[in-house]
Amino acid sequence: MFTGIIEAIGSIRAITPKGGDVRVYVATGKLDLGDVKLGDSIAVNGVCLTAVELPGDGFWADVSRETLALTGFIDLKTGSPVNLEKALTPTSRLGGHLVSGHVDGVGEVVSREDNARAVQFKIRAPRELAKYIAHKGSITVDGTSLTVNAVNGAEFELTIVPHTLVETIMADYRPGRRVNLEVDMLARYIERLLLGDNAAEPAASGITEGFLAEHGYLK
């Protein structure tokens, strides 16, 4: 588990094909690896990776075909900057929100505009994730816990303050950039709970308007 509060900006040092998938070396910059041991989890742009080697100034991790297919990891190259966060511990402050490190989909930056000292971004999420994104709710973008300022269909807006621009890779975002998205896990649990006993049925694939109307949630 993670908080979505980025601890450092690292970079991809090497990408090595290995048995059909890849192994990556992430240089961790100012991230303190003193308490990290083999097998520990580190979020890289919101993707939970396992440290399999710790050479000192970074870590090696294996990236599966599934991760390459379902995240923006496929867009990374040697030298690409990445957001880094070590796994949450029982004594950590939960400054953002609970983040699993399991990316739900890849969005796209639609626009970027200055807003006083902040920057306003509009991001388009995959259609299937739109129902989980709420005004003033939480969302994780490349591992960064953020508050949604506005929602219009599958597009949502973020206002990023100067500190976040400096401490994350968001300063580099431009229209067309693909970003990893993880929706608030509470929204997914609520969806599942609303199915009730029907959740045990194979056909129970999600909440529909018909289901909500049948059970009195819509009039």
Automatic annotation (TrEMBL):
Residue span(s) of domain Lumazine-binding: 1-97, 98-194
Enzyme class: transferase
Metabolic or biological pathway, per its Swiss-Prot or TrEMBL entry: Cofactor biosynthesis; riboflavin biosynthesis; riboflavin from 2-hydroxy-3-oxobutyl phosphate and 5-amino-6-(D-ribitylamino)uracil: step 2/2
InterPro entries the record matches: ATP_synth_asu-like_sf, Lumazine-bd, Lumazine-bd_dom, Riboflavin_synthase-like_b-brl
Enzyme Commission identifier(s): 2.5.1.9
Lumazine-binding repeats (start-end): 1-97, 98-194
Catalytic activity: 2 6,7-dimethyl-8-(1-D-ribityl)lumazine + H(+) = 5-amino-6-(D-ribitylamino)uracil + riboflavin
UniProt keyword list: Repeat, Riboflavin biosynthesis, Transferase
One annotated GO molecular function: riboflavin synthase activity
Protein role: Catalyzes the dismutation of two molecules of 6,7-dimethyl-8-ribityllumazine, resulting in the formation of riboflavin and 5-amino-6-(D-ribitylamino)uracil.
Protein name per Swiss-Prot or TrEMBL: Riboflavin synthase
Phylogenetic lineage: Bacteria, Pseudomonadati, Pseudomonadota, Gammaproteobacteria, Pseudomonadales
